[in-house]
Amino acid sequence: MTMETKLKLEVVSPHGEVVSEDVDEVSAQGSEGDFGVFPGHVPFITTLKIGMLTYRKGSENKYVFVNSGYAEVSPDKVIVLADSAERSEDIDVERAKAAMQRAEERLKQAEKIDFARATAAVERATIRVQLGGKR
Ligand code: ATP
To answer: 58, 84, 85, 126: which could join 18 in a potential S-S bond, CB 3.0 to 4.6 Å?
Structure first.
């Protein structure tokens, strides 16, 4: 068996391909907890939280917002299928702040709102605002 030294990372959403790169390490937030992947990892599949994916290429760390979905890990590949995703440098922080404000207003109404939907919108916006400043 050959020892893998690189990982191919693919992050895809229905809106398009977000990442397609050879990387050294990937960290992400599974529904059951955070996990890290180096080349040669045993295969597994997990669903993902609304959260952050980090990958390292040499000494450089990169950050990606990931809106749910799932990750499929194999020894030489990590494939993430997300409902939406953006690289931190592509996040429009003002748009995320506006989305947060809308969702928070909705949550204040207390009645006749889809609570889970509004809460998820707040979560998406919160992480986008956090990641938007990272480069
Ligand atoms: P909004 O209410 O601002 O549309 P949302 O959380 O409902 O936010 P999504 O459904 O997650 O948006 O994403 C729809 C599309 O817009 C996706 O392609 C996503 O990558 C992009 N997108 C959403 N918010 C941002 C943002 N703040 N910066 C950059 N791209 C964004």
So the answer is: 85
